[in-house]
C-alpha cells in the first residue's frame, strides 16, 4: 500500500491533470452544461466564443473545454520536473511518453530510474532536459579505463557489452544463454573505484568500442553506470539513428536482490 501511495504522490500532477482532461470530455455528456452556458449568456454580456460554443451544443463544449484545459496544463508543466520524490521510479515507457508528449512535461530526473529506462528516455528524446546535480557526480580525470574481452565466440551478429562503473560486475551475472557470446568489458579503474563520478574517459572508451563493432550488430548492454554517465553514454555512443553500426540495442536489468544477476530478457531500446 505504501508503494502505491508513493507512486501516486510522485505522479500527482499528471494524474490530476489527466482527470481534468477526462472531466472535460465526460462532464458535458452526462450533465446539461450547454443549457447552463446559455442561461449564463442570457444573464451576462458573455463573449462571442462562448456564444459560438453554446450554439453548437455539447460536442463543441467538449472540444473547446478540452483544448483550453490542455493549453493551461502544458503551460504549467513547462516549469515542473518528473520523478521528484526520493523513490524508485519504475514506470511504463508509455506513461513517460504520455507525460512528455501529451502533457508536455519538459524535464525528467533520471536518478532511481531503471537503467534500461534511462537509456530509452535519453535515446528516444522523450523529454527536452534531464537535469543533474553535478555536485553529486564530481568530475574524475585521474583514473584508468580497462577494456577486456571475456570470451572470443565466433558469433558476429550479437555481442555483449559490460559497463562496470559504480560497482563490480562479473560476467557470471549475465544470463546463462548469453555467456557464450563474445563479451567486451569496460571498467572504470578496473572496478576498484566505485564512487559516483562523471567520467569522460569512461564514456569515450565506450564510444570508441561501440563505433568499432561490426555493422548490423545486436548489442546487449549490462551496466552498473550512474545516471550522469548513463545519460552521456546514451547520447554519445548509442543515439546515432540510422548513422550507427548497431542494428538493435538491448539493455538488461539487474535483479533487486543478491547476487544481483541480470534478468534473462533484455529491454529493446531500438
Give structural notes.
- Helix content is 40%, strand content 15%.
- The protein has helices at 2-10, 12-30, 33-42, 48-56, 58-77, 93-101, 115-123, 200-211, 227-238, and strands at 81-82, 107-108, 145-151, 158-164, 183-188, 217-223, 246-252, 267-268.
- Strands 3-5-4-6-7-8 form a 6-stranded mixed β-sheet, covered by helices on one side.
- Strand 6, helix 9 and strand 7 (246-252) form a beta-alpha-beta unit.
- Helix 2 (12-30) runs antiparallel to helix 5 (58-77), helix 3 packs across helix 4 and helix 8 packs parallel to helix 9.
- The longest helix has 20 residues, at 58-77.
- The mean pLDDT is 87.
Question: Characteristics of this structure?
Answer:
elongated, six-stranded mixed β-sheet, 270 residues, 9 helices, two-stranded parallel sheet, alpha/beta
Largest sheet: 6 strands, mixed
Mean pLDDT: 87
The separation of the N and C termini measures 35 Å
Oligomeric assembly: single chain
Cα-based radius of gyration, to the nearest Å? 25 Å
**Strand coverage percent:** 5-15%
The share of residues in helices is 40-55%
Backbone shape? elongated
Q: Please trace the helix and strand order, writing H or E for each element.
A: HHHHHEHEHEEEHEHEE
Strand line-up across the major sheet:
3-5-4-6-7-8
Low-confidence stretches: none
SSE blueprint:
Layout: H1 2-10, H2 12-30, H3 33-42, H4 48-56, H5 58-77, E1 81-82, H6 93-101, E2 107-108, H7 115-123, E3 145-151, E4 158-164, E5 183-188, H8 200-211, E6 217-223, H9 227-238, E7 246-252, E8 267-268
Parallel strand pairs: 1-2, 4-5, 4-6, 6-7
Antiparallel strand pairs: 3-5, 7-8
Helix pairs in contact: 2-5, 3-4, 4-5, 7-9, 8-9
Amino acid at each position: 500500500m505504501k508503494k502505491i501511495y508513493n507512486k501516486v504522490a510522485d505522479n500527482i500532477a499528471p494524474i490530476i491533470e489527466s482527470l481534468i482532461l477526462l472531466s472535460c470530455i465526460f462532464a458535458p455528456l452526462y450533465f446539461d452544461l450547454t443549457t447552463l452556458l446559455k442561461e449564463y449568456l442570457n444573464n451576462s454580456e458573455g463573449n462571442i466564443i462562448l456564444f459560438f460554443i453554446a450554439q453548437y451544443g455539447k460536442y463543441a463544449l467538449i472540444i473547446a473545454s478540452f483544448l483550453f484545459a490542455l493549453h493551461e496544463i502544458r503551460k504549467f508543466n513547462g516549469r515542473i520536473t518528473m520523478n521528484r520524490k526520493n523513490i524508485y521510479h519504475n514506470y511504463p515507457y508509455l506513461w513517460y511518453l504520455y507525460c512528455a508528449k501529451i502533457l508536455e512535461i519538459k524535464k525528467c530526473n533520471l536518478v532511481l530510474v531503471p537503467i534500461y529506462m534511462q537509456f530509452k528516455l535519453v535515446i528516444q528524446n522523450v523529454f527536452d532536459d534531464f537535469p543533474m546535480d553535478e555536485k553529486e557526480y564530481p568530475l574524475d580525470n585521474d583514473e584508468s579505463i580497462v577494456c577486456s574481452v571475456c570470451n572470443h565466440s565466433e558469433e558476429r551478429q550479437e555481442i555483449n557489452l559490460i559497463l562496470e562503473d559504480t560497482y563490480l560486475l562479473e560476467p557470471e551475472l549475465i544470463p546463462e544463454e548469453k555467456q557464450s557470446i563474445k563479451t567486451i568489458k569496460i571498467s572504470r579503474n578496473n572496478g576498484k573505484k566505485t564512487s559516483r563520478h562523471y567520467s569522460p574517459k569512461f564514456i569515450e572508451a565506450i564510444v570508441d568500442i561501440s563505433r568499432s563493432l561490426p555493422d548490423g550488430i545486436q548489442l546487449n548492454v549490462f551496466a552498473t553506470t550512474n545516471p550522469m554517465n548513463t545519460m552521456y553514454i546514451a547520447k554519445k555512443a548509442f543515439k546515432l539513428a540510422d548513422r550507427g553500426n548497431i542494428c538493435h540495442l538491448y539493455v538488461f536489468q539487474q535483479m533487486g536482490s543478491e547476487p544481483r544477476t541480470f534478468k534473462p530478457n533484455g529491454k529493446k531500446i531500438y
